[in-house]
Fold:
Amino acid sequence: MTEPLVITRVTHSCHLIQIGGLTVLTDPWFSQRALYHPGEPIAFQPEQLPHLDAVVISHEHYDHCDLEAFRRYPGKDVPLVVAGPVVEKARKAGFSNVRALEPWQSAQVSDLTIAAAPGKHGVYEVTYVISGGGRSVYFAGDTLLIPELRTLTDRYGPLDVALLPVNGLHIRMAGNKQVVMNAEEAAELTAALRPRLAVPQHYAFTGGTVGDMLFLKSDKDPAHFVEAARRLVPDVPVKVISPGEPLTVDPDPGPGPLTPSSRAEP
Ligand SMILES: [Zn+2]
Structure:
């Protein structure tokens, strides 16, 4: 029997992914501070999380790697698969089972395969394809769209879900540099990967009134991704999810039984 695939956003890029009967947490973030606000609820605190079988962390920024809060999670031996610069920080936070993956390396974590894909952001970043129980999910952290990402399904096979950032974040003080893919680029990647379902993430985030005015520019409306995807790849469904709302992704029904009318004539 196929185990259910369930995606629950905690907030921002932090998700619980139940796959192959196991639970993975992505990019832990459980708090806020000046200039860093999720802009949506934080559905769970570390003490309220279910038992985790693995954690993936795309990069070291506070809104993706809140180890100060996540250290309150009681299972310090949970396997952490992280970007290289996160290793020392995670060990210092008390986690004992931490490993880094370079892009295109993969690790076996109990019955899951976690493969690292490249990313491009303001700092070093990796993204992840998580597979188990015949299902597979791409978690894109907050990367820009780079050409290598279009090859993911050639390397790892079809995806059930792609969790894609969509806010096109620009940093005003860095010459208005873009550091995250925008809705249109996320839709382009959706068209290239053709997951069975695309789910936007990383959009509600705000630097607060002052932060958004002085430092950050971003698109906070996931409907822009929904519209772009509908235009570029109308046959791939998109689902916008709210923190704490579990989304169950049905298994691929496959071609179904042959009926007399669909059977090829000899
Ligand atoms: Zn970041």
User: Anything to note?
Assistant: DSSP finds six helices and 16 strands in the chain.
